[in-house]
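User: Can you write out an input/output pair for a complex, sequences first and structure second?

Assistant: Here is one pair. Inputs:
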Amino acid sequence: MRLVQDGERVLLLSPRGKQMLVTIHDGERLHTHKGLIEHSDVIGIPYGSPVRSHTGELFYVMRPSIHDELMGLRRASQVIYPKELGEILLRLDLRPGREVIEAGTGSGAMTMAFANAVRPGGRVYSYDRRTDMLVLAAQNIERVGMGETVTFVERDISEGFLHHEVDALFLDVRNPEDYLESASQALADSGHLGLLVPTVNQIIAVLEALEGMAFVDIDVLEILQRHYKPVPGRVRPEDVMVGHTGYLLFARKIRRAPPAQPPLPEPNQREASSP
Amino acid sequence: MRLVQDGERVLLLSPRGKQMLVTIHDGERLHTHKGLIEHSDVIGIPYGSPVRSHTGELFYVMRPSIHDELMGLRRASQVIYPKELGEILLRLDLRPGREVIEAGTGSGAMTMAFANAVRPGGRVYSYDRRTDMLVLAAQNIERVGMGETVTFVERDISEGFLHHEVDALFLDVRNPEDYLESASQALADSGHLGLLVPTVNQIIAVLEALEGMAFVDIDVLEILQRHYKPVPGRVRPEDVMVGHTGYLLFARKIRRAPPAQPPLPEPNQREASSP
Amino acid sequence: MRLVQDGERVLLLSPRGKQMLVTIHDGERLHTHKGLIEHSDVIGIPYGSPVRSHTGELFYVMRPSIHDELMGLRRASQVIYPKELGEILLRLDLRPGREVIEAGTGSGAMTMAFANAVRPGGRVYSYDRRTDMLVLAAQNIERVGMGETVTFVERDISEGFLHHEVDALFLDVRNPEDYLESASQALADSGHLGLLVPTVNQIIAVLEALEGMAFVDIDVLEILQRHYKPVPGRVRPEDVMVGHTGYLLFARKIRRAPPAQPPLPEPNQREASSP
Amino acid sequence: MRLVQDGERVLLLSPRGKQMLVTIHDGERLHTHKGLIEHSDVIGIPYGSPVRSHTGELFYVMRPSIHDELMGLRRASQVIYPKELGEILLRLDLRPGREVIEAGTGSGAMTMAFANAVRPGGRVYSYDRRTDMLVLAAQNIERVGMGETVTFVERDISEGFLHHEVDALFLDVRNPEDYLESASQALADSGHLGLLVPTVNQIIAVLEALEGMAFVDIDVLEILQRHYKPVPGRVRPEDVMVGHTGYLLFARKIRRAPPAQPPLPEPNQREASSP
């Protein structure tokens, strides 16, 4: 049985699904839409316990997951891709000890997900040219205690990256096709490139730029998530869903560009791509 | 620059996308559809290098990712959910040091993904009642060097789990609704439950069984991945796609069941902006 | 060149995509969010012409399509399925001369689409037990000049249908499984049954009820439409899309129930269903 | 009760879903995979009746729908879009009396669907430059008795269309952007343009070409159909689905190009409610 300690970060979860993330400090108060909660009421109780605000509203005290933290940032900044995130972490093969570059930093949401995946022992180099974004992201990263895993770099990446031999590199910038050469130089051989772009025009531009470069195993995909109402007697998909965040592209770096390939003939027998 | 060492596991990748996973042993030979490759030709060369079979066929020598290993298992057993995997890892909040139960083991693919996510310091308890599956899975796990992170348990889970206070628990069994009580007892407070079922009938059965139990934040979803042909002049989705693997359900354990909630009123406004 | 005549129904379309449907009556005025338009300004001009409100706002005068009329009703009542409609018309094989029953009537949107498809020479029998809905629907149908093709019937369909030997029958009611026997009696042999239900529970209930009945060629499907921003330099799907309206089921009536079939073995080689 | 007449076209439907379309001629025999059926055994029996081959195999004798005929053509030629078809008919507002141009003709499947929608009183002008395709299509159209509704035109449409003032025009050709000017000239004011292209590159090319032309209400969309296994105890989507046929674009012709519009500001709020 784990008890909530002073200084820990907790998630307060209402039965209706409202979520609040807060770092517990003895003596402080949390102001919710449904009344006040004294932090001291939470300290020392087991995780998973109910707690009530001064108006009697019920909340559960939960350990926050990295997904909760990202959703918290998402409510603030809107520039995160939760439905793509699991796939990105998997495809970049991020694990303890790995080094990864990301550009740009944005609100630090992806930074946080990357840092969570490569610690202990790994490192995230997060590039952005905007000081204000870097300051905001650094605050978000410090709040969740991941500061020592991340190096923030204020720099225009059109001048190239300062770090090299990284295991993976993720581009979330306006014109990723302009930075593929720099990305290739920063990646270790056999390293993973990932990027996310919102438009089909950008996917075309990136694919054109990749021709003749030292990347193989190029995969372009998009991910749709469909959530269902969890009511046993009336199970059905939500009426409205996220229709698009962006197109993902993954590729792997080799030591030099492959020889040009004659195109494959169009198959007569259409086959499923791998899922 | 990393050089391939004797005993390492490598991915051989053809320009056409063919993939072969092999553990390098000096003196051995790999038989491909396109000719022989001497393992000794690969030892000592940098990752990302080209290598040719005795018939001149080109391959690249890459470091395998966890995704590659899972895809390799998938080609053998067909019972894996790569498009759901990233989301499962994220939503169960698996990270170094965490403990997770899975049932059943199957070919060990999910076991591998879980072990990769919780090491170092974590542990996977993988339950199955079939000896042959456990033997197969153990071989697959040993091959990728994750044996010390996994405990295999031969047991019918209708008798309950032997491990408790785990951070997460994943059910991939025929009638998950029958094991929710056992799952609840095995999970630590605030722990994460996940399950995957193929049919809508099973989702209904699980949601019914969850009523009155000590779980909150229930989320039912499905994931669709759409892959595109990466040809710059003719970008378009693949003609055929995976239409379904299963429905995912996630929930979080609390210390006791929440009070019954009056249902939310159905919204009057139920249509999205665009037609 | 077609000129707008007094008494005709026109669509006013703004360059931004705003749509207004109006029947032109000399001497009347249309009040838009962007100023007044005199009906007399529209009479006698060619379709496709621009017209300006008294504040200078631009509109185009277009011939309304059946889709425009349905979208107009949709803005008023919210209970229409434009993304399913084309498929429903096709699968019920509605064409001039055919007879079709629908239950319930609702706002008359489906009634309108059916009437449009079966005229000249065909007939729609539209059943509802609510007088107010029938009155509303009749007004909507009269407005588009289809009154003579539709027979409205105020009746609880649990007592059966009054019309028989119809070519097609569409159920859009709460518990369609309760009315399948009546539907079967009303349909001509080889006739088409269609229904739409929002939940998976209802699909299960309907499939159970159909077992042993004289229906074959059962097809359950759902339709997703994904709209794109039509901006040449930034083509991408809309951020938000309709995630669900309902599940469609189609079947065909035969003269008596087929003999029970042994289940097909699950295929080893998974195949695509017909699109 | 309708009885099968000599000379009528029927669908033979097996309980397993096998479909065969045949025109009944007294004295002829149908050779199926499951034995012979004498046409004379079918003549005079009611539609919806069972009939057995000489080996005892069961079939139902059904009236064929236009959808059946299209599916029959599809099995032969693969170049039809049944999941898009209902939407195309609806959006082009095809109904009795309307005139529509299509290019190209292909196997005549779309021609058939268009002819079915505009008769009586309407007309389809179907353009192709390949004599062999026109001959094939004409045979397919004659077989279903729609010959008098269709005019086939052997012509390279880069020289423009011979017919004008048509209500709708559909392009299913390799470079539709090259024919938009001709399409505009052939369409009546307020007429409907539709086209289908497989790649995103083509959608971009068409949208670029439409800029400055006399078209409004441009809508780009794609349609996904998801079919479910109709087994009451195990309802779930088919494992494999059609992932793509093409992108649809619809627009409406006005009398002259609209003035250039300033772009709408990008919305700040771009995320849907659920993650």
